[in-house]
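Instructor's aside before we start: the two examples that follow are unrelated to each other. I chose them only because their records fit on one page, so don't look for a connection. First example below.
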Amino acid sequence: MENLVSKLLEANRHLRHDFLNHLQVIWGYVQLDKKEQAIDYIQEVTRYIQGLREINKILDDQLAGELSVYILKIGLNPGFQLSVPEKWNVKIAHRNRYSSFFQGLFSFLMEDINEEKVKLKITILTEEILLEGETLKEGDILDWSNFIALLEKEKFNIIKEEDGNYFRLLVKDQ
């Protein structure tokens, strides 16, 4: 738990830093009399902040905290989306499995997401997680083997589809 608190404090620092950067960008547009760009940027930041509300639907505080850390590290990135059903919860006995899932997923994809090499949409369903996305450079293929091995170790059922740059991975709880 202590490790989670320190990670959340670090995520909070990221959030404050990003927020101040966004204000500086908006202020720059205003000073340059670029009203339309300022409005567009405000709308983009607003969509990002509204997207953070998805985390509030996760009832397990530990998982919500861990996911917050990863999402705040990604920051404002139109290539990343998260969708969570109302009041999503996991059995306490499965918490560590989901924690490993998210840690493995973001260890695998964080750099590519931040460098905008990959678009990713995570849809959390009741007992399934759907990952959909694409690599943005033609011919780039993701090596899923380590992540798949982690999922198998954690005893998740996996259905994986790939078609060129597009991928879809359905992870089911047992």
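Example two begins here.
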Amino acid sequence: MSASSKNVQLVQKAIKDAEESAKVYSQHVDKAVATWDKSNEIYYGKERDLKNFPPIRVAEYHPTVRFGVIPDTWFQAMYEKTGVTGPYMFGIGALTYLMSKEILVYGAHLFEYGPFIICVTYMIKKFGPQIAAYTDDWVQKTENERYYKPLQTVKSNIDRTIQTAQEEITRAEAIPMLAKAKQENLALELEQAYRSRIMHVYKTVQRRLDYHVAKEATRKSFQQQHMVNWIVDSVKKGITPQQEKETIANCIAELKRLSQTAKA
């Protein structure tokens, strides 16, 4: 098995594992969403009278109060009918009524309520903002550590998983192109090897042909030279000393004649 086939199998296995993990996670998400939808239908469905019985929500901060404990909404409700002094007169009148009817009985501890209320109000005004800031900071840190930070971690992990899956999908899509490119490179290498071998055969045949041509030329040259030497030797052997002298004499006479003709 080639290395490319092993890489393809590894990538396919990784993609299959990622798809199975995504399928399992999708099933868990679908189950959780179905549970939420069912709970929402039970508590906030069509049969719930949200107008007359709205859902109770815990306020993050307490409403505005006066004198430390009395809600400001009570004063606002009485302003339209009694004016600005109405709520205060109502409070004083109610306190007078309770005392006159001895509903609020005088006692040894009754006079302690005033200083106690003053001290508590002072402490609330003095240290309340600091304690509120500290508790708000503690609540914010607790929410971040127990809710937002784990949620952000899960979100980051999911984003990384999605990004990794997208990268693997992109790589898987590029595998056919890579395989095709490798096939083309292999074809080019085979073509190069084929042409190299053809060139080697061509040069080998060329050398052999050149050898045979040179051999034939040498043979013909040797035969021709041998024939010439044989003829020359035969002619030399056929000439007698007397014929050689006569020939030399004729040559000398001819040269003299030619020289005299040239002078004339």
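The chain has a mean pLDDT of 83.
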